[in-house]
Amino acid sequence: MAAALPKAAALIPQTMAHPRKYPSPHVQIAVVAGLLSSILWTGCAASGQKPAPEPPLPPVMVTEVTLQDVTLFSEFAAQTYARNMVEVRGRVEGYLDQWLFRPGADVKANQVLYVLDLRPYEAAVQQAAGNLHQTEADLEFAQKQVSLLQAQANLTAAQANLVKAQQDVDRLTPLVAADAASKQDLDAAAAALKANQANVAALKANVDQTALSTRTQIDSMKAKVEAQRAALRTAELNLQYGTIRSPIDGRIGDTLVPVGGLVTPNSPQPLSTIVPLDPIWVRFKVTESEYLSWTKDGKAMPGGNLPLVLILADKSEYPLTGRIENALNQVDPKTGTLELQARFPNPRHTILPGQFGRIRVQVAQRKNTMVVPQRAIQQLQAMLAVFTVDADNKVEQRAVITGDRVGSSWIVEQGLKPGDRVIVEGQLKVRPGMRVKPQPYSPPEAPSSAARQPGS
Fold first, then answer.
1. Residues in Cβ contact with 373 at an 8 Å cutoff, skipping those fewer than 6 apart
2. Which of 88, 109, 301, 404 has the largest CB neighbor count within 10 A?
3. Which residues contact 183 (CB under 8 A, 6 or more apart)?
4. Class of 62-66+366-440 per CATH?
5. pLDDT means per 10 residues in the chain (456 residues)?
6. Is the separation of the CB atoms in 446 and 406 below 8 Å?
7. What per-residue confidence (pLDDT) applies to 12?
8. How many Å apart are CA 414 and CA 268, to the nearest integer?
9. Distance (Å, rounded) from C-alpha 218 to C-alpha 144?
10. CA–CA distance from 298 to each of 260, 272, 303, 306, 364 (Å)?
């Protein structure tokens, strides 16, 4: 090979010295390059060296296209909320004396949260109780009807006197007629009879008046007793309201009124808020077209009896499933969406109101469908394509039309057939027509859904 190089070098000036034979410089360069290649090959052959071996075939990971039955899911942006959030407010006015909870703690219904200064309300209860006792004593006195009994006794005495006066007149009348008694005595007896008759009539009227007055007094006392009892009950309620309790079970926020602050029933600011966490509610919106496709031909909306999966902000799945409870009664004309509301059990209170996530719901089931991993599909300008490997392990490029997404894979509507081997990994190392070394593709294990429990 070393001996051949000077010969080639000697040929170069000769070729360059005859421009008429080689009018073009490009042709001269091509001839020289050919001579050099021939000389180098001859030198290598003379020295006994073999040609360089072909490079090894690039390995690629392939999966075979098969027909599968797949379940289609849809995902929607969602947000959690508390349906029955309660504002803690004072029902009576007073200065805050005690604050008995920790912000962010779970509280139970009827648990004491705040205590106001109770001394004014305790005094009001005592005053109302005293007024009630006094009124009850007056009622008892009126019910005994002492005045009426006295008037009735006077009437009885007057009636007895009237009878005696009538007897005197009846006894003296025959005696006067027989001149056995004086007419003056008869006149006196007759006058006494008239006086007693008038007295009896007056006492009868007094008894009726006293009876009416007594009944009126008794009714008035009874009404006053009822009013005093209501006043006592109001005072007792105000005393109870001075101790502010939790109306529901839930998680309480921070206090907005410090100890010593004034609490008023009509304050625009509540003392705190309590949100129930079990169950937790989730709202999400579907488009008008999705709603129409779901309810086509009188079908019920999907998810009513199917479990919903809540995907949290960290991409993890909430272990308990929920169900759609209701939908709003109209489509939002601004966004063309309908709001659905779902309920999820939350016994450990791990989900809080206001969190963002996604709702996954089953919408359809397809049979005999071709599915390929998402990473096998490439975007080439305005089309989607995959690389396949034929029986001779040569690479082919095929345009495909995809459908819905199924997990980390896509449904292929056109472009492939069952049995095709699709390259999943190694696409960057291949080109159409190249031979490759295919190896079976093993997909990563998907997160198990066995731990998912049905919601209540």
1. 63, 408, 409, 410, 422, 424, 441, 443
2. 88
3. 176
4. mainly beta
5. 44 43 43 48 52 79 90 89 91 94 92 95 94 87 73 80 81 79 80 83 80 80 90 94 94 92 92 93 90 67 71 93 88 91 92 93 85 88 88 91 84 90 89 90 61 40
6. no
7. 44
8. 64
9. 9
10. 62, 46, 15, 17, 16
Structure tokens at 180: 């056995």
DSSP 257: S
Closest of 417, 354, 405, 443 to residue 72, by C-alpha: 405
Three-class SS state of 308: strand
- The confidence score (pLDDT) of residue 36 equals 52
Per DSSP, the three-state class of 249 is coil
**For residues 129, 132, 134 and 135, what is the CA-based torsion angle, rounded to 10 degrees?**
170
Residue 111 contacts by C-beta under 8 Å, 6 or more apart in sequence? 101, 245, 246
262-263/437-440 β-pairing: unpaired
Tell me the two tokens of residue 102. 């920790």
Token pair in block for residue 288? 């008008």
Compute the half-sphere exposure of residue 341: CA atoms within 13 Å on the CB side of its CA.
11
Residue 4 is predicted with a pLDDT of: 43
Query: Cα separation of 359 and 436, whole Å?
Result: 42
Strands 94-99 and 67-81: unpaired
The Cα–Cα gap between 358 and 309 comes to: 8
Given a contact cutoff of 8 angstroms between Cβ atoms, the answer to whether 301 and 324 are in contact is yes
What is the Cα 101 distance to its own chain's centre? 24
Fold of 280-363: Elongation Factor Tu (Ef-tu); domain 3 (2.40.30)
How far apart (Å, rounded) are the C-alpha atoms in residues 238 and 92?
A: 6
pLDDT of residue 167: 83
- What is d(CA 237, CA 231) in angstroms, rounded to the nearest whole number? 10
Give the DSSP letter string of 28-78: HHHHHHHHHHHHHHHHHHHHTPPPPPPPPPPEEEEEE--EEEEEEEEEEEE
- Topology of the domain covering 88-111+246-273: OB fold (Dihydrolipoamide Acetyltransferase, E2P) (2.40.50)
Residues 6+ apart with CB under 8 A from 345: 278, 279, 320, 322, 455, 456
CATH architecture, range 119-241: Orthogonal Bundle (1.10)
Question: Would you give the distance in Å from CA 334 to the centre of its chain?
Answer: 24
Dist CA 92 CA 110 (whole Å) = 17
Integer Cα distance of 331 and 339 in angstroms: 8
